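Typical record was shown:
=====
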Amino acid sequence: MFSMLFPAFESGVIYAIMALGVYLSFRILDFPDLTVDGSFVTGAGVASIMLVNGQSPVLATIAGMGAGFIAGCITGVLHTKGKINPLLSGILMMIALYSINLRIMNDRPNIPLLGQETLFSMFRSFWEGLGIDEALNSVFAGIGLDPTTWSIMALMILVTFTIKFFTDWFLRTEIGLALRATGDNKQMIRSFSADTNKLTVLGLGVSNAFVALSGALIAQYNSFADIGMGIGMIIIGLASVIIGEALFGIKTIMRTTLAVIGGAIIYRIVIGLALELGFKAGDLKLITAMLVVIALVLPKILEGQKERARKKRKRSEFEKTYALGPEKEGDNVASTKSNSQSL
């Protein structure tokens, strides 16, 4: 069981970056951006082809992130300048990216990275010299948790929380506040002379940059990039966002971004458990849909129960007050009569 949880946690931390990108477009901008399914592969394809050509893993990962930023900006331009429906502009860009990604990958549907130096192998060389793996394995070996290396976990926690803290800071800046206002009420922010078109383009660019970064890291983690690896990414991202918000709350930006990361990790753990219990790979989409439905419906059911309990409590208090009212009034009349008789 624990041997299954560790890789699920590892991949969940990587997918959390993609979920943060979906959070920016879906929650902050209120923009249903389907570009995610294409830009995820764009990041993976750009990073992989650069690694095969002998480029630095750091440079390849940054380039993949930049390609995703460009893809998101184009989606924003299609919507703002072309006046295309938000959903349709994302679909158009997603379709276009399929052909673009094939071109990036030299018309190859799959690029293996076995034997190539990646960001993880480069960091692992540094990590092994620290001797931390032996210390951690001696502590966790008793519960059956004995991974080959903790370097991937350490690196991805560092990268993901760097992105999280950057998102928290960015959304508190003047541009970030204007971005949040654009998603809430475009007419209001326009009255303050803000250019909502540029803000939308910027927001979608940053969102897809995060998605492409996640794709580049997943390609290096799995040691291959595939043209179909982005199918359903928007659903996985939405599932992570919704599960995280339902479980951890959304009172502040810092708490919400942390909830999104937690939701991505929980999603991957649930998928891992499903595979461990014998479900087929083809069942994962159904499981994802069920998770999203539960995360959407369950909070409303619980809120409805709380509301009914609140109304019932108020009704009982009212009935008690109404029941005691006449008695008190009778007692007051009786005391008045006794006082008058005594006089």
Q: What stands out?
A: The beta strands are 110-112, 224-226. The chain has 13 helices and two strands. The longest helix spans residues 284-342.
